[in-house]
């Protein structure tokens, strides 16, 4: 998956390059900066002394030394001062310049911390939004694997309004599904027998779907339906799999194998990339043997975004991560 949000210690990431949220001297400091210098050893500081510092929004590169990465890319984020001094553009520049350096040095895998969100005081939800948007824009043009590494839950935050809205949607649908499951089962059984629901004892499970209804969906496989919808959308294959946060190699497998069996997160990632409404999303899921379920928080969160016509896979993954769910595109 091109962009993945993970909880980890960035000094332990086995990638081509990690990004250091440094200060302008590049001579080490607290937080992520201090951890990286301690893990890399004194050789990193010795090389940093030769670089002449770094301006806010720019980036410089060194070797990784004792770290499990080839390179360390040092970038200086802005200090938060209320958002009135160009902090957003400077922060976005940190990510862009770091990615360009990674590209120049042929780094295929890059790990970022959430820049400026610690001692520099940038609000975590705004810092996260800029990180995801900037990295996402870059990945629409380049094939790279990028990790956004957060150390713990306190290091991560989506907007309070969005979190509350999603939480309310989960509560309205997830709880109702469990409370009303028996009633819904009875409602579905009764018409099959031409009798009111009250006439039946509690069933242990709902009846299976009608065979003819199930068989009518066998005409088109997941791969066939996906490729047809990509053609109808006017997107190229690359535009679609990048919008879906899907690796090119995985897409090649899907294209070359009409009977490919995807994961549920892969199907939903493509539904988001194609901006399918809920009914078409359900149809695409059905070709792969899946369905949206109100007993799954993962499904409800994705449904929330589709129902609100919000189709940015990276923003959806922010929310999924905040609620401890798997990410789209995995």
Strand share of the residues?
A: 5-15%
Largest sheet: 6 strands, mixed
How confident is the prediction overall: mean pLDDT?
Answer: 87
The tally of strands reads 6
Task: Please tell me how large the radius of gyration is.
Answer: 24 Å
The low-confidence runs, each spanning 5 or more residues with pLDDT under 50, are 177-205
State the helicity in percent bands. Answer: 40-55%
The rounded distance between the terminal residues' Cα atoms is: 6 Å
What is the string of helix and strand elements?
EEHHEEHEHEHHHHHHHHHH
Strand order of the largest sheet: 1-6-5-2-4-3
> Structural class, please?
alpha/beta
H/I helix tally: 14
Shape: elongated
Organism: Candidatus Pullichristensenella excrementigallinarum
Pfam family, one: Macro
GO molecular function, one term: deacetylase activity
Protein name: O-acetyl-ADP-ribose deacetylase
